[in-house]
Amino acid sequence: MEQWTQKQAIDYECARECITALIGVYTSELDEQEARPDPDAVAIAALNETITRLFNERRDLRLTDDEEVARVNSVYGSMVRSAMEATRSQLQSSAGPT
């Protein structure tokens, strides 16, 4: 049985959550694109490919693959933060002055 540390387990779970969050971001974009009166078929195909790739990355991620876990947390973590900030800005601007 492969040994792992508590830090590896935490980093791995964070990486899986980053991927899951991005799947949610891209799924929301896909829903918005599909709901448009004239949806962009190229954008829809690209979003579907991205969502599928993320599902596969999450499935293939291994707890003891420290380099890949670190890459996911770094790259995807910043993407998730950006998406959250964009959502926060949209909510604040739609709420009007406080």
**Continuous helix count:** 3
Residue share in helix: over 70%
Would you report the number of β strands? 0
* Rg (C-alpha, Å): 17 Å
Share of β-strand residues? under 5%
Shape: flat
Name the structural class: mainly alpha
Low-confidence stretches: none
Question: What does this protein structure show overall?
Answer:
The protein has 98 residues and is mainly α. It has a domain at 24-55. The chain has 3 helices and no strands. Helix 1 (6-35) runs antiparallel to helix 2 (41-60) and helix 1 (6-35) packs across helix 3 (66-95). The longest helix is centred in the N-terminal third of the chain and has 30 residues, at 6-35. The protein is flat and about 55 Å long. The N and C termini lie far apart (56 Å). The model has no long low-confidence stretch (mean pLDDT 93).
Secondary-structure blueprint:
Layout: H1 6-35, H2 41-60, H3 66-95
Helix pairs in contact: 1-2, 1-3
Quick recap:
By secondary structure, the protein is mainly α. The chain has helices at residues 6-35, 41-60, 66-95.
Notable characteristics:
98 residues; mainly alpha; 82% helix
